[in-house]
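Late entry, zinc ion complex.
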Amino acid sequence: MVYLGNTLNMLWINLWITSEQGASVRCPYCGYADSKVIDSRLNEAGDVTRRRRECLECGKRVTSFERIEEQPLTIIKKNGEREPFSRTKLLEGILRALVKRQVEREIIERIVDDIESSLRNEFRHEVASRELGDRVLRALKEVDKVAYIRFASVYRDFKDLEEFTQELKILT
Ligand SMILES: [Zn+2]
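Prediction complete; structure with ligand written out below:
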């Protein structure tokens, strides 16, 4: 699914879609975990649903525009193969780079959520694995420099020590 609407609506819906994957729904105003749909209608083409939602805690309302996206997000690998985007796979890849680093799991989950929701909000259907890796790197750079280098060494496939050292210099 992809979304149209203002930032708060997107925030709400991003969290809502996350909830379908197991987390809870949170109000963008007060953070409460449940809402009720008070109005729901399809557009003329029948592919966009407009929903009015009301927070069960603070009563504030947001409008969401939710479009059923037929095409899933596809990752194009370096060798040209395509595979469906997997949140789990991305998460595991980052966790591998972070073994024995003191980075909270919650932070990593947030990085993955941010990447996925930004790609979906950009209405992307296909993303090169290289770009996905770059997005992870940008996020990791802010969090943990060692994790960043580890992830970079896997994702960027450094050709030699010199290239690796160059990357280290950028960081210091
Ligand atoms: Zn609320």
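The chain has two domains: 2-67, 74-171. Will revisit in the morning.
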